[in-house]
């Protein structure tokens, strides 16, 4: 996804593929996480676990966001925004209030959920909570054995409970997931049956790359990895 395009091109794109949505509720889960509910005509949208929608955050910049929850019957959808630094996406999300309207694209991307695999493992951070929320109902409905490993800042460690996530462990952002030896010693690997799991790794590029390397070294084969952000890189 191109994160920056000329204003005229963006307006043309929105007129062709954009769907107008209105903010009907907004709440802060923490000072750095904001959950916004939109209402729109979403009947034609293609919702798949792992897909993301594009939102225009200023005249020329766009960002991808995962739909955390949707209900086609009522036309509502939720997005969990991670507010960090002064990036254009964070500024825009912080400014959203009830009654505001925007254009949002139909979700698209790469599917990450493998229904036939009994064991399911998810690793992510604040930017991944929307995906975790969209995945949880499928994991429960299809009676998977699942675990969520979440790398979170201290001020956000209560948010998974607020979102109703289950079977999760929270780890501090202290650089541990950039260390191969530390990852290799995680309790996850005490049970060899988890090597046959479906692994979904999203969020911090460095953490994902390191985790993926350890998994491959241990023989895991079903790994879906997608970086959402990299320190110092804009608009990933």
List keywords for this structure.
5-stranded parallel β-sheet; alpha/beta; 6 helices; 5-stranded antiparallel β-sheet; 236 residues; 24% helix
Topology:
Elements: H1 7-17, E1 19-30, E2 33-39, E3 51-56, E4 62-65, E5 67-71, E6 76-82, H2 88-95, E7 101-104, E8 108-109, E9 119-124, H3 129-141, E10 145-152, H4 159-163, E11 168-172, H5 180-184, E12 198-204, H6 205-218, E13 222-229
Parallel strand pairs: 9-10, 9-12, 10-11, 12-13
Antiparallel strand pairs: 1-2, 1-7, 2-6, 3-4, 3-8, 5-6
Q: How would you characterize the overall build of this protein?
A:
- Helix content is 24%, strand content 34%.
- With 236 residues, it is an alpha/beta fold.
- It is globular and about 50 Å long.
- The model has no long low-confidence stretch (mean pLDDT 91).
